[in-house]
Write the structure tokens for this entry.
Amino acid sequence: MSLTRRQALILGGVGMVGAGIVTVPISGVSAKSASKLSDSDMPRPYRTPLTIPPPLAYQTTVGADGVKTRHYTMTQRLSSAKILSRLTTPILGYNGIFPGPTIRIDKGTRAIVRVRNQLPAKHPTLGYALPTSTHLHGSASLPQYDGYANDLTLPGFYKDYHFPNFQPARSLWYHDHAVHFTAQNVYSGLAGQYLISDPVEKGLLPQGSFDVPLTISDAMFAANGALGYDDREHSGLWGDVILVNGKPWPVMQVQKRVYRFRILNASVSRSYNFKLSTGDPVTVVATDAGLMPAAQTVGSWRHSSAERYEILIDFRKYATGARVELRNSSNDNNRDFDNTGKIMAFDVIGTAVNTADPTWNSLPTTLVSSHPMDLTAANSTKTRKFRIKHDDETNIWTIDDLTWEEVIASGFQRVMADPALDAVEVWEFENSSDGWFHPMHMHLVDFQILSRNGKPPFPYELGPKDVVYVGERETVRVLVHFGPHRGRYMLHCHNLTHEDHAMMLQFRVGLGADEADPNDPMKAAPAVWDPVQG
Ligand code: C2O
Ligand code: CU
């Protein structure tokens, strides 16, 4: 955010200039802090060790076709987290933890994840009801297992989600997607990483404890340690505390070798501009939907909510005792606080490095191509354009003046587009506003970013994607192959307060308007009553 815009905001909420004007009251939130914690309770950067969410246990069965299926169970429950040193924080968590357990699975092994909703009937502080819908973001799941916003699992029920895992290695994440309350639910803790491995990735990149999931989010706290919630009239939630894997500004000890970090921005609204405190570049090796054709060395990168970038950091050259920080230089239209420019720190230790592991000193340059990256614009048979904007009269976020409310009103039939199965199309998202950025996410598909304002995408975006940062006054074109499933899938802004109010539509692949839909997202696999409660 430029100083002038920030000053304008501080001076009375007149900063939202240009298209998409809404005057956002700023009472109750100063630019100094969003949390109401006492000085002594307010966490400080670099006091807590990084923790890694535990793996999730499973049982394996082998089908008649020889294909393995792993059976997992996750229970959504109200629990409390130790985020602050003295106070506890009530959260909603998969298995009661935030982030939820990490699922690591090989490509070609199927998964059935039973998600049990054992949440209370109402959110403990925000008071709304707690039906949930679980989306595996980055998976080409069938519509009925895709976390369709209105395919709800009520407290006391469970739903078995079938995940195919046939796609190339990638960093996915699971998170709640319940209609109108996705922001609060994810913010309260319902999110975790899900990682698909394959031999290509295993041969190229660090594994095991050198392959580190980092889930980054921002939060604000009430005086008693509970999470505060203020979405500034649905424009965005801007916390003053940065959490990495649920800990404030943690520190990780690193050996003098190459590490791989799977960075997920799980923030409700905040985007980051990440860079290292040393000024050294990082090597970006994978984007949302897996490995890039070629690694990209970048000094910083813009990272919106729901995007995943896998990066390599080479710690070989630092002295024992050196501290390397991951910092955030922010982007336009975020609200920054004293310490939101800091993310986490890496402390270099002198432990002997296992040089028998070939990835210890390897910064591969050529990686692997993928179907979306092999497409060219010449493959496209249609271009569709969508304008994303704010309706100032209603304070509603829209895509082509439509919202999820129209989808609901149509009995979930209305669609923004109906590409044929296997159609290749160019989709264009236009954000003419100065006041907002929108991370646009398409379910089902991986895409290639073709251009932004007619220019090539950033180097770190030259890989398969499922979210694209549509910044202020940006028009972004993406190239999409629709498949492999038929059916209705959502498309929305991943600023979750925008998504909930109600910047979300759906497209229908390979089905006519009147054709029966065997994979009806609401009817094909509804949740069932859980005979085991608790
Ligand atoms: Cu990560 Cu429709 O969401
Ligand atoms: Cu948005």
In short: The radius of gyration is 22 Å. The first helix runs from residue 3 to 10. The first strand starts at residue 59 and ends at 62. Residues 1-30 have pLDDT under 50 and may be disordered.
